[in-house]
Amino acid sequence: MAKDNTKICVVCEKEKSLTEFNKRASETDGRRKECRICQKQANAGYRNTPNGRLRRAFHVAKARAKAAGAYDTLTFEELKETFDAAVDHGCVYCGGELENDWSVEHVIPYSKGGTNEIHNVVIAHNACNFRKHNHAPADYCEAPGSLDQLAAYLYVMSDGKYEIDEAYALLKSGEANGE
User: Please, which domain of life does this record's source organism belong to (predicted)?
Assistant: First the structure.
């Protein structure tokens, strides 16, 4: 039986001090049902799943966009669709299979006027993203036809903001013009 200043964790079933439980206003006693240690273990497990890693990458992209003062309309659902397509098609730059070695890549980097919008975000290997740095994407498309795919992606995802020839020019210059 738990005392007034203790509670039993529903996960590990140990009686612990109330200070070992995070606050939650919706609970009758004002504390979560699982202790902090069990909650931390559950969160760590989620972060290592593809969806957990993607959600973390999404929040990092949002924070970086805010810090750079970049225009930002990207939603998690849009990023999830991009990720699901990338899993089927591979890295946008080298065409290699994506496993756990991926990152959210901005085709036109913030430093060159890029935005955090769906048409400027792709999934690439960490090494490809690092190697591209803030240069023009055309210089780093190794897989046959990947520049064509990237231009088509920009055209489709921008809802006509970029015509196909504008998309190619953007990929070759690596800079957004007056946006």
Answer: Bacteria
DSSP 87: H
In a domain, 57, yes or no: no
Examine the domain organization and report whether 141 and 108 are in the same domain. yes
Residue 87 lies in a domain: yes
User: Rounded to two decimals, what is the model's pTM?
Assistant: 0.67
In contact, 92 and 146? CB cutoff 8 Å:
yes
For the chain, the straight-line distance linking the first and the last C-alpha, in angstroms and rounded, comes to 64
The beta strand positions in the chain, using DSSP E, are 6-8, 15-17, 103-106, 121-124
CATH number, position 75: 1.10.30
Q: Which two tokens stand for residue 127?
A: 């090494």
Domain count, the chain: 2
**pLDDT tens digits, 69-102:** 999 999 999 999 889 888 887 888 888 888 888 9
Which of 126, 134, 174 is closest to 150 using CA atoms? 174
